[in-house]
Please model this.
Amino acid sequence: MTRIKSLFNLEGKVAIITGASKGIGEAMARGLAEHGASVVISSRKQEAVEQVAEGFKADGLEAIGIACHVAQEAQRVNLIEKTIEKYGRIDCIINNAGTNPYFGPIEQMPAAAYQKTMDINLNAPMELSKLTYPHMKAVGGGSVIHISSIEGLHATAGFAAYNLSKAGLVMLAQNQAAEWGKDNIRVNVICPGLVKTKLSTALWADEENLKKFKKNIPLGRMAMPDEMAGLAVFLASEASSYMTGSVLVNDGGILHAPVLT
Ligand SMILES: NC(=O)c1ccc[n+]([C@@H]2O[C@H](COP(=O)([O-])OP(=O)(O)OC[C@H]3O[C@@H](n4cnc5c(N)ncnc54)[C@H](OP(=O)(O)O)[C@@H]3O)[C@@H](O)[C@H]2O)c1
Model:
């Protein structure tokens, strides 16, 4: 019988994580690397991704930093080519890089802010998954993980562009799951709640605002980035070999068990 623990082993696997120079992406990359994967740390600045990769290597983990602005086609192609050059295969991609440049009413939303949000949050994951597809197929399968948000599962006034892009990721994953299951490529989505990172600063920096927000969270606090990593390890590994098209919410209970005050 298979030892269950071995199903989480990622030795020999290669994973690309976008937006991995900090926050949730860095924590997920570390989780995968600690389970044996060779990880490609990617974000816009070469210096930043190299610094994270060097930190991983100092801890005995395998990593390389390859810069990529995910909305730039040439940089996406370069990311995949350089990964293949270095490691010869791709088993997993975590589409984590995200942005939220506009908070405010829909009727005042600049078209450019909407376009930027969709380009980075939704179109880039689509294009990057397309680029990894033949490489995953060539090694007999793989795991695509999209980082959406609970904001992709409900409406919040002022968040329209972000929420649309994150909702799109759910349907992207489910369509990819429907089409790529035949190639043993699994596609799943993680929807975090409030996580303490740079991106979410506006939501937690103000003590009074945070206090109000926390009242609605059954677990009574926001998450730290490390608390998102276990799901990524699970979805990247054989431990989730029968899961595809799934939407995994990791939010302290806020979405499905809100505290009504
Ligand atoms: N924090 C939360 O509460 C929360 C909740 C739900 C979902 N999420 C989602 O989780 C993901 C990670 O967010 P986070 O909170 O960890 O944010 P973060 O700490 O601000 O990190 C964002 C990462 O993305 C990179 N990045 C930004 N724009 C990029 C681009 N155009 N191309 C490539 N990399 C880019 C950043 O590096 P550079 O600036 O160096 O490029 C950084 O590595 C996002 O998709 C976000 O929507 C976050």
Summary: The domain at 4-247 is CATH 3.40.50.720 (Rossmann fold). The first helix runs from residue 23 to 34. Residues 27 and 174 are 25 Å apart (CA to CA). The helical segments are 23-34, 46-58, 73-87, 111-138, 160-180, 201-204, 207-215, 229-236.
